[in-house]
Specification:
Radius of gyration: 25 Å
GO molecular function: ATP binding; kinase activity
Family: Belongs to the bacterial diacylglycerol kinase family.
Organism: Lyngbya confervoides BDU141951
Number of strands: 0
Number of helices: 5
Subcellular location: Cell membrane
InterPro entries: DAGK, DAGK_sf, UDPK
Largest sheet: none
Strand content: under 5%
Shape: elongated
Helix content: over 70%
Bound molecules: adenosine-5'-triphosphate
């Protein structure tokens, strides 16, 4: 009876001293160094290139815009802007691909209104950036191109 009245000490919670250094327990695999991280990023690029038609189109359009810029001898800053906008479109397509994979992983082949919203919005984000990139490329490349004709 008396034993029951004695309050037991609160459990001591062990906190990791550097939680940001702890391995992510739920991950199947974690990249342990920079080289391995690059290898996984490369695998993502290869996957997107060979499976996503839109990614290939973005890569082709970006390459064409850069080549045209070099051919027309636009300034370095203008080339950098074209490179940046092209890379942004491709990066957004990669995020779109990642999101599609996560949605498919979650709902499988079932229809879900939220899955539709997620995929449609991610696709819209790519479209927005692609339109912006084309507009910027037009502003930078059309004047020297028309000048040369
Ligand atoms: N599980 C789902 N539930 C509801 N709607 C879906 C689902 N999966 C796909 N959809 C609809 O079908 C569309 C096409 O899906 P998909 O997975 O091919 O994406 P996508 O963005 O068109 O692909 P990509 O970028 O490769 O062209 C989505 O935008 C969404 O409207």
């Amino acid at each position: 009876m008396t034993e029951k009245l004695i309050a037991s000490p609160p459990p001591v919670l062990k906190r990791p001293s550097r939680p940001y250094r702890e391995p992510r327990e739920r991950a199947y695999k974690v990249a342990h160094n920079l080289l391995v991280s690059f290898r996984y990023a490369g695998a993502g690029l290869v996957y997107a290139f060979f499976t996503q038609r839109n990614f290939r189109i973005h890569a082709l359009v970006g390459t064409l815009a850069m080549s045209l810029g070099l051919l027309l001898e636009v300034s370095n800053v203008e080339l950098a802007v074209i490179a940046l906008t092209s890379a942004l479109v491709m990066a957004m397509e990669l995020i779109n691909t990642a999101l599609e994979a996560v949605v498919d992983l979650t709902v499988g082949s079932d229809f879900h209104e939220l899955a539709k919203i997620a995929k449609d919005c991610a696709a819209a984000a790519v479209l927005m950036l692609a339109i912006a990139a084309l507009t910027i490329a037009g502003f930078l490349l059309l004047p020297p191109l028309l000048n040369d004709l």
